[in-house]
Amino acid sequence: MQERPFDFNGALQTGVKEDYSLYMKPDIDQIRSKQAFIIDMDGVIYHGNQLLKGALELVEWMEANNKAFLFLTNSSERSPLELSQKLSRLGINVDPEHFYTSALATAGFLASQRPGGSVYAIGEPGLIQALYDAGFTMNNVNPDYVVVGEGRGYSLEALERAVKLIEGGARLIGTNPDLSGPIEGGIIVPACGALVAPIELATGKKAYFVGKPNPLMMRHGLRRLNVKREETAIIGDRMDTDIQAGVESEIETVLVLSGVTRLEEVNRYPYQPRHILEGVFEIPV
Fold it and tell me: What is the value of pTM for the model shown?
């Protein structure tokens, strides 16, 4: 955990030159008063296979206080069942119904646009299964869409085929715009936005990204929770996805510094989080 160069009472630590005057003092009671929480996973609950401080206590606190909660992740690699099993291995038991991914949001969006369509997909089983469940078939000849998510299946051959299919009329869809993501050991790896970029450059076509900060995914989350936006807070570690999504959806925003965003970076954005915490361990009573 990095040291906080700002103490939220207005005092700057020695040697820090940035102006933190726009940062808001976190109101823990206001956060705790919310009836529902939309929570990012990577950088908030865990890094790779390392559980972060306070994650278990947060879930226990939400369950004990009858809070509605949804783990909403831009990752498209795993299904809700796989995410549930991963948390179980890390010591947190949460049913699959509490998870919603960019793969599910993407499949739902495409089903609303072209029911029963076809796709050429680059991604992991979580994405492929979501597309199948939404009624889509796989097509590497003349699909309606080229869909790109994270995964080890990305290769030069797949990239070349994607470019060819888009030039033939397929629309380009990205599950999320994240350029990078953290794993254990502090390592940063390329994410969907970085994998889509070469296809965009080669074709001159811009992808439509369904995941955060697209408010569409946030509306899906609120419907699943069956709550109003005023009753909800989003907890995330990324300014350009989690916090932007909350701002654009008018949901209370809580930035945690346990992931990719450093405190000194926050003031560079034209929008600001309502609360800034070191991690989710500050929330449970």
Answer: 0.86
